[in-house]
Write a structure and sequence with these properties.
The protein is mostly beta strands. It has one domain: BH3618-like, CATH 2.30.290.10. The strands form two sheets. Strands 3, 4, 5, 6, 7, 8, 9 and 10 form an eight-stranded antiparallel beta sheet that branches. A two-stranded antiparallel ribbon has the order 1-2. It is globular.
Length: about 150
C-alpha cells in the first residue's frame, strides 16, 4: 500500500507493517491506524500515523538499554489486543529527541505493546516507581556497561 510519511515522503509499505490501536495513544486517542517503519538511525523505529502524515513517533526497544525493564500489565489488559502468550507481544518506548540538543529520552512509564499476530496495539501506563517518562538512553547505556 502507498503511504505518505513524515520521515520519507510517499512510500510503498507492506500491509503487515500496519498496526491498529483501538484506543489510540495517550493524547492522540482519535488516531488509531499506524504503520511501523525502520528508521535510518538504528535501533530506532517510526510509528507513523496513516491518518495524518505529520503524526509520527520515534520508538525504541526498551530492553536495549534497560535489561531490567519489566512490565506489570495484567493478562486481561493484554487480551484486549489479542495477546494470550507473552511471546506474541513486542514492546516499545516512545523516544523524545529535543531540538535544543538535550538528552534523548525514552518513556518507560507508558510502553507501547503490540500483538505480533493480531497487529493490534495499545499504550499501557505503569505504576512501578522505577519507570519514568524520561529515561536518558545514552546515560543508562553507559551505566549498564559499567
Amino acid at each position: 500500500m502507498r503511504v505518505n510519511t513524515r520521515a520519507y515522503g510517499e512510500i510503498d509499505v507492506d500491509e503487515r507493517q500496519r498496526v491498529r490501536f483501538p484506543s489510540g495513544l495517550l493524547g492522540f486517542e482519535k488516531f488509531s491506524e499506524y504503520i511501523l517503519l525502520d528508521a535510518r538511525q538504528k535501533p530506532f523505529i517510526y510509528l507513523q500515523s496513516l491518518e495524518v502524515a505529520e503524526l509520527a513517533f520515534i520508538l525504541i526497544d526498551p530492553f536495549l538499554f534497560r535489561a531490567d525493564y519489566a512490565l506489570d500489565v495484567g493478562d486481561e489488559v493484554l487480551q484486549e489486543i489479542g495477546v494470550a502468550d507473552p511471546s506474541d507481544a513486542v514492546v516499545f518506548s516512545i523516544v523524545t529527541a529535543p531540538s535544543d540538543g538535550g538528552p534523548i529520552t525514552a518513556n518507560l512509564m507508558g510502553p507501547i505493546i503490540v500483538s505480533k499476530s493480531k497487529r493490534l496495539g495499545m499504550q499501557a501506563v505503569l505504576a512501578d516507581p522505577r519507570w519514568r517518562v524520561k529515561h536518558d538512553i545514552m546515560a543508562e547505556l553507559a551505566e549498564a556497561r559499567k
